[in-house]
Amino acid sequence: MQQNTWGRSPDDSMTRVLPVAAPMNMLPVQVIDRNMIAPDVVSVQIVLPGTTQAPAPYLPGQFVTLALPTSRETLYRSYSLCGDGDAARPWELTIKRMQMGAVSNYFYQSVQPGTLLYASLPRGTFTLPSRVSPEMVFVFVAMGSGITPLMGMLRAIQRLPERERPLVQLHYASRSPDDIIYRDELDEMDPDRVWLRQRHYISSEGRRMTTDMVLDFAGPLAPRAHWYMCGAESLKRELQDELNAMGVATRQIHTEVFASQHGPAYRVAQSALASEPTDLFIADTGDALNVEPGETLLTALERNGYRPDFSCRAGTCGTCKLRVLEGEVDQPGEILSPAEKADGIVLSCIAHPIGQVTLASGGRAPAGVVRRKIPGVSAGRSRKGRTGVRAVALVGMSALLYSSWNLTNHKPDSWVAAASSAQQTIPASTSPSAGATITSSATPGHSGGGAATATPGGGGKGGPSAPTATPKPKPAPKATSTPSPAH
């Protein structure tokens, strides 16, 4: 198949049904290359259709959410960007095939050069500090595919002039030597160990990663190092507790949610799902909606004309938070804090109502619905009017593609340059079914890929407009993140 052509393979059963208008907050992207880099691990190169450049600038360690429409539903999964932040080159996503994983198996079996997908703009705060200097120390801790966001950071550091590279330790746990993702590249990255020291833990050989082993290897560097962890929650919690006890500053500890978004982790037990439609009340509009069996709150709201914010649709980024005033929901695998749970916050993308539920707000309400002020509850932003003209949808799509092209039409010298370029506001497509204004703030954090503090926001439908760039002050890096990429 010829590369860089905006077309679909006749065998491309999943993307053959791509709608004319992109899902809210997303733009069309195209796969131009794929390689098997380890057993059950595929790496794909993704560009803006018709180009060889990244669909949008990004920071090493950030992630994107992909939408894969099928004949039955649209599947959303988030994956880390593994590149060094050079937006002149394609995005690189590395996906490990998971048992019962619909999306990971699709990538492994079916995605070929030419395949079209939809993707969000990059987001996440699991990134390097805005300034990296040679006197700094970094300790990277990864398990399995948790290496993917860290690989982008390693590549970015390697791209620095030799005298400007900081000291880096990599602790990486794998099942076997053959399962080490990026094994050859890691072997060749710094053979003389000038700036990078690696320690591999192979479980099949009886060497499992432990907190004590990591801290012993870090030695006196541990208190002043910047720690980046993407692995099992138990190891991260234990290591973070030890670092806190050592007096390591919170701002130096960065974690990603290492959650499988394509396996059974987010499936709700059938016994918890309602067998009949249930009622959903929206307090700030007074609406009474119905939720069909098996539907999430997000899906039910969208079906009834509401437009709540969302991004990953897998319970890891936190963009879709809503507040429950009355009733119960089932949301397995969620990443909410105890304080958020106590306040009734739920993740609407994975929350299934158990009986009647009342929400403080359902996000942007349908046109003509009047909001009421609820004490202590934010009414949110009003939704703009709809347009249902198919031709306008096509124009909106063109505007989105043109905007993304402008975003990538540069060659930053470092990931810092990419960050400043990424702070753009892009007009999304307008269509009868979807449309939004996407705002990306390239700031450092993730859940395994990371949730950004300012993620692409959902918006009301609006007409196409010329691409604009609105400079924003760069937020300070956060110590932890609560989203995303699936591994």
Overview of this protein structure:
There is one protein chain. 18% of the residues lie in helices and 23% in strands. It has helices spanning 102-109, 147-159, 183-189, 211-218, 233-245, 297-303, 338-342, 390-408, 415-422; strands spanning 27-38, 41-47, 63-69, 74-80, 91-96, 116-119, 125-126, 137-143, 167-174, 196-202, 226-230, 253-255, 278-282, 287-291, 321-330, 345-347, 352-359, 425-427, 437-439. The strands form 4 sheets. The protein has a 6-stranded antiparallel sheet with strand order 4-3-6-1-2-5. Strands 10-9-8-11-12 form a 5-stranded parallel sheet, with helices on both faces.
Summarize the structure.
This protein is α/β, with parallel strands linked by helices and 487 residues long. It contains nine helices and 19 strands. 18% of the residues lie in helices and 23% in strands.
Summary tags:
487 residues; alpha/beta; Rossmann fold; Ubiquitin-like (UB roll); 6-stranded antiparallel sheet; 19 strands; disordered N terminus; disordered C terminus
